[in-house]
Amino acid sequence: MTQRTTGIHHVTAFVRHAQETVDFYSGVLGLRLVKKTINFDAPEVYHLYFGNDGGSPGTVITFFPWPTSRKGRIGGGQVGITSYVVPVGTLGFWKERLAKFRIPTTETSRFGESLLQFDDPDGLRIELVAREAGPASRWAFGGVPADKAIKGFGGALLLSTAPDRTAAVLENVMGLRRLAREGDYVRFQAAGDLGNLIDVNVAPAAPGIGGAGTVHHIAWRAADDEDHARWRSLVEESGFHPTPFIDRQYFNAIYFREEGGILFEIATDPPGFARDEPAETMGEKLMLPDWYEPHREQIEQGLTPIEVRVLEEDRQ
């Protein structure tokens, strides 16, 4: 059976400040904080997950806030732009909303689609694109009603140091279909309706530098553990060196670095974010895996308190 991912599972990035990140992704963009946990490898650091009402695969962006992190530089071997999809007819609403928060925007186009581009507080590049595809959001927060809310990922623009090799991995390993070339980019399509359109640079990009404002990795969807095992075998047979299966509590993961320098993860859709707390209250409590629970008091004392709040601009 040919392996074809349905698209992006999640994107993980580095930022500096936890509350500033919550204010931007929940307060401004209206995403739900679906999970507040820690970096399992560095428990003194939050791991924050933002997505739609249920944290569905294809909607979630995650962050490691490191207050002392160096400033990164976006470049080859990274995700250059994270793309979100919004309902058709709502780009005007989003342009006005971002202006209200004094966030500079740029209007441009790629592959015939109008794009609204801007940066988050750390310089992570974001764009909004309006499309019919993908289920509508059921989440409303602050000044973002559900009928104008972000649906999930539209896709991503990948910056590769070896774009032909990255393209080959997307087509021959991940099962994306090459659609077209336009100017400096080639577009590929995954099988799903969210996080499914991936653009790759044509000319090699100078290497980026990891740090605040850059993406650490992009994760692709696997249907379940059985599918995940097939993916790992395929990646290994394709000449890469995937990690062992890693339990991330809310999904299982494998990682490998493709030859253009981008760190790929393949993550399972289940079990999801409601496995350890009620869906109605996800994101309100710090959730810890069992092996860190005995150290909860110490961990909580080391983390700066954060809150999801309606921002002043939406209270006026």
From TrEMBL:
Source organism superkingdom: Bacteria
Record bears the keyword Oxidoreductase: yes
PANTHER family membership: RING-CLEAVING DIOXYGENASE MHQE-RELATED
A Gene Ontology molecular function term of the record: dioxygenase activity
Keyword terms of this UniProt record: Dioxygenase, Oxidoreductase
Domain VOC: 7-131, 152-269
PROSITE patterns, A to Z: VOC
Name of the molecule in the record: Ring-cleaving dioxygenase
Record-linked Gene3D superfamilies: 2,3-Dihydroxybiphenyl 1,2-Dioxygenase, domain 1 (3.10.180.10)
Matching Pfam families: Glyoxalase (PF00903)
